[in-house]
Design goal:
Shape: globular
Distance between the termini: 62 Å
Order of helices and strands: HHEEEEEEHH
Number of domains: 1
Helix content: 25-40%
Strand content: 25-35%
Number of helices: 4
């Protein structure tokens, strides 16, 4: 009888809100999305996005479109066609990118949001930033598996580059 009550209580509670994203952050994700060719942002690495309401008339954003897009996980649905700004904290600095949402995929309890970067300069910078994010996520994973005192940052970065750098989309 007591276990029945406990099971009913667990059903009411459900999973924590970020459970799907936390579970996914423990898995190594692919760097390049096979359907779109966009770069996946690592799930365990912080990213924030906000909608830009009046971003349509930016003189620097329209003339040249980039060849790179980014995909990241979000708890919230973002409508395609919306212009957003994403921020990625990276080594005591914050990197900002603007783009238009062109892809939304529902994966259970979260959404994969794909954005097309609006400027060529953002695309080349995003490519480098995402590689650093993936190297940091790989380093974190290696520390977890092998222990924090065994890891050499430079060696891990070289290992990631030799294994995965070729899968990062080029400009």
């Amino acid at each position: 009888m007591g276990s029945h009550r406990l099971n009913q209580y667990k059903k009411k509670l459900g999973k924590p809100r970020n459970a799907a994203l936390q579970m996914r952050s423990n898995q190594t994700t692919l760097i390049r999305d096979e359907q779109t060719g966009f770069i996946h942002h690592p799930s365990g690495f912080p990213i924030e996005c906000k909608r830009l309401w009046f971003a349509g008339t930016d003189e620097q954003s329209e003339p040249v479109a980039s060849d790179i897009g980014l995909i990241f996980d979000s708890e919230k649905y973002i409508r395609p066609g919306v212009t957003i700004e994403i921020t990625i904290p990276l080594r005591n600095e914050i990197e900002k990118f603007r783009g238009k949402v062109v892809l939304v995929r529902h994966n259970g309890e979260f959404f994969e949001i794909g954005i097309w970067l609006r400027r060529q300069e953002d695309a080349s910078r995003a490519r480098i930033v995402e590689q650093i994010c993936h190297i940091e996520a790989y380093l974190k994973e290696k520390k977890f598996r092998e222990g924090p005192y065994v890891i050499n940052r430079e060696r891990v970065a070289e290992e990631w580059i030799s294994k995965y750098a070729s899968s990062v989309p080029s400009l």
